[in-house]
């Protein structure tokens, strides 16, 4: 059987698979792709190697020198310690790049208004208790003191607002965000000051964000409150991104959430399963945002360098793609014609000396012919590559196997 | 409880910071920096300009920071100490 044709490996919907079940990897049937050498289901907190269940720590190792917040299915943020994958059942694992919140106030647990400068005649800035509203928004594990900023512009005859200390430092695109609720009027978030979200009302704490290019390096995050209104706000964030990432708490200085480097804890299974001569992967990312204009890695097998690798990613146009480099020479760089959209996107990739494929659940296919395979593959990264290219999204599942030996329906059913 | 060790490294440019961390990586199981410009962004805060008080916000008049011309990066290690990084801090 060749993997040059995708239909050799993933028969069309409803068609019986003609590929022989070699039984090489199958030890029992379960939640994983039947012959998966390594399977990780972050959504359901289950992991297996060659059909044997194991713990997350036995399957994967995470390096990240900072804590990480991630919201659960109930909307409540949970905190993850250093070197711990940010993963929640019914959500998945968030694997993102390094992000610095450039705001330098006390954005999570303010005890004073240090780092927050009010403007506007008639407005009053204070710190108040808003514990119940914070809990209703799922913020109680970040804003543990229950205190928030309040800008009362109810007596103001014109717009009031606050400037947060901490500037962009460059004129690359930034995103400013804040959790905010309003009473009696409208408010918005801005990057000082012309880049602003629309003035609106927020009955409960909502994350309000705006993305744009600061007009100079000294610009920072800002909140504007229309005359007659009052805004309660917390967790202001200014990040060099075209999208928001999970909150980063600050305490009087900029704070960095380091990248999550997630690698297979060991690689003995890889060669034992014969995957050096080709393989396949079934993977389910879940995108909260697209259109970043950058490559976002799903997984990468490499020799630790960019000279020998198999990398599955969505490219700068958000199209699922497979890149294979052997001996420093790019063998294939092929992408589907259809881009991914928001939400969960089951994808399958196959590669071997005879060729391979990229396929999505709706039947879009890109295939390629014979190539030279990379040698020395000894590192498996999930959600990043040797060059970075972080996923910046949630990963629900990944199954890595020799070949996918099921019908489309059976294959995609694994990802349900 | 993890022990967090933070090493603040200062240099005249991001390239100098990269070179210093490549040198500090020799013999280590996991490098702080490699290739032409790649940092271990799971442990190293990417280079950023050093600032000091002295500027004024053009809209509010509030005091803000201005670049000094030097660059900084931070290496943050969990349950690990590194003598080479200690030496670099001067």
Automatic annotation (TrEMBL), chain A:
Domain of life: Bacteria
The protein's name in its UniProt record: Uncharacterized protein
From TrEMBL, chain B:
Name of the protein this chain belongs to: Uncharacterized protein
């Amino acid at each position: 059987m060749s993997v040059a044709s995708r239909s050799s490996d993933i028969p069309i919907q409803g068609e019986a698979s003609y590929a022989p079940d070699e039984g090489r990897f199958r030890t029992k049937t379960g939640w994983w792709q039947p012959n998966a050498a390594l399977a990780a289901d972050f959504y359901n907190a289950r992991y297996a190697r060659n059909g044997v269940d194991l713990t997350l720590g036995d399957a994967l190792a995470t390096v990240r020198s900072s804590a990480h917040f991630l919201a659960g299915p109930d909307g409540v943020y949970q905190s993850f310690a250093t070197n711990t994958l940010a993963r929640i059942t019914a959500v998945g694992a968030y694997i993102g790049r390094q992000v610095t919140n450039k705001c330098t106030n006390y954005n999570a647990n303010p005890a004073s208004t240090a780092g927050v400068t009010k403007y506007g005649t008639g407005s009053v800035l204070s710190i108040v208790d808003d514990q119940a509203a914070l809990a209703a928004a799922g913020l109680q594990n970040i804003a543990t003191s229950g205190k928030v900023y309040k800008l009362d512009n109810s007596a103001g005859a014109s717009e009031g607002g606050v400037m947060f200390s901490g500037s962009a430092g460059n004129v690359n695109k930034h995103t400013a965000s804040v959790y905010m609720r309003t009473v009696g009027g409208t408010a918005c978030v801005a990057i000082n000051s012309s880049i602003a979200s629309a003035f609106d009302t927020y009955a409960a704490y909502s994350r309000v964000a705006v993305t744009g290019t600061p007009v100079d390096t000294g610009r920072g995050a800002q909140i504007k409150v229309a005359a007659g209104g009052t805004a309660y706000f917390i967790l202001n964030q200014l990040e060099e991104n075209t999208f928001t990432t999970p909150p980063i708490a600050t305490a009087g200085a900029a704070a960095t959430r380091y990248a999550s480097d997630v690698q297979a804890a060991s690689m003995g299974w890889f060669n034992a399963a014969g995957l050096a001569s080709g393989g396949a992967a079934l993977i389910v990312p879940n995108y909260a945002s697209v259109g970043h204009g950058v490559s976002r890695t799903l997984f990468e097998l490499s020799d630790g360098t960019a000279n020998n690798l198999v990398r599955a990613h969505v490219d700068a146009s958000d199209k699922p793609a497979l890149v294979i480099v052997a001996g420093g020479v790019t063998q294939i760089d092929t992408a589907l014609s259809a881009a991914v959209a928001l939400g969960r996107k089951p994808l399958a990739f196959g590669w071997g000396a005879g060729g391979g494929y990229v396929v999505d659940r709706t039947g879009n296919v890109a295939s390629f012919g014979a190539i030279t395979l990379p040698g020395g593959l000894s590192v498996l990264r999930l959600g990043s590559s040797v060059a970075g290219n972080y996923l910046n999204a949630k990963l629900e599942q990944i199954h890595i196997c020799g070949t996918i030996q099921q019908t489309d329906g059976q294959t995609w059913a694994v990802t349900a | 409880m993890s022990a967090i060790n933070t090493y603040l490294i200062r240099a005249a440019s991001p390239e100098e910071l990269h070179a210093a961390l490549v040198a500090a990586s020799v013999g280590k199981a996991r490098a702080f920096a490699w290739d032409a410009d790649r940092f271990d962004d799971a442990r190293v805060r990417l280079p950023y300009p050093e600032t000091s008080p002295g500027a004024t916000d053009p809209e509010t008049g509030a005091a803000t920071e201005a670049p000094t011309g030097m660059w900084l990066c931070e290496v943050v290690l969990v349950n690990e100490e590194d003598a080479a990084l200690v030496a670099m801090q001067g």
